[in-house]
Amino acid sequence: MALRTRVGQARAVNRERKRRKAQQPTPPAHLTTPHLCLLRAPKVGLPALPVRGTISVATYNVHRWAGLNGRTRPDPARAGFVISELDADVIGLQEVLRPLQGSDPLIALADALGLHLAFAATRVHKRGELGNAILSRYPISGVAMLDLSYSRLEKRVAVAAQFDIEGSPLSVVTTHLALADRTRHTQVRSLLDHPQLHAGPTVLLGDMNAWRKCKATRVLEKELETHHNLDWPASFPSARPVLALDRIYARGVNITEVNAHTSQAARRASDHLPVIARIAIQ
Questions:
Q1: Cα(78)–Cα(27) distance, integer angstroms
Q2: Phi first, then psi: what are they for 201, rounded to 5°?
Q3: What confidence score (pLDDT) does residue 11 get?
Q4: pTM to 2 decimals?
Q5: Pairing of the two strands 35-40 and 54-61
Q6: Which residues contact 251 (CB under 8 A, 6 or more apart)?
Q7: What is the CATH number of the domain that holds 141?
Q8: Residues 238-247: tens digit of each pLDDT
Q9: What is the total count of domains within the chain?
């Protein structure tokens, strides 16, 4: 009798799983490949602040809004609070999750902080679109996406936004590079050869997955300007960072300072710490 009960319970659980799966929205066909899908101004923008020669830029892997261990229910407010702490002029985000149904936490965050927004989807996660975003205090005058999916196992993109900052042009490119060394080097070569990084002053930032010295990082450090520090600030894992995965490079502008943001909130909101830099604008 007990065996029949357990079998009946297992069948009921399977039926419930199938029912829930059938109710999940089926993403449109175009969402299965990387694509640029959002460019938006905030409902109420931040007031323009004088540049005084420098602006702040930051990179932050928000880990799908799922916190330090990635096992909790997505809570965009945690990472949103950290982004507000940064108070950066331009922020590149990686592993941003936008649900296919319901309210969009990325749009809500941009509106709450008064920031302009661009987003490119890398792939469809079971809970929605997953990709990279740029948030900016300054209006976005142009936006582009570069597909870096050179591996069947890892879809990757870079999203680039152009700005006019008090008459000075600036491009900011954010990306999330592959785990495999060979693929990561191919992605870096594509980025460095892309016209976007040669059109004027440019900042390249993101999760470079630079967990050790490799061909990709050597090429980046050879062809782009880095920073004043002897070492990159460690940003992963956030609770006790030892790896400098998140980096900020430049071409045509100077990086005068770069640091990891190590607040208590940042150590819990994601498995990565944000990295923030000061950029000298000519």
A1: 27
A2: -55, 130
A3: 62
A4: 0.86
A5: unpaired
A6: 197, 198, 201, 202, 204, 223, 224, 225
A7: 3.60.10.10
A8: 999 999 999 9
A9: 1
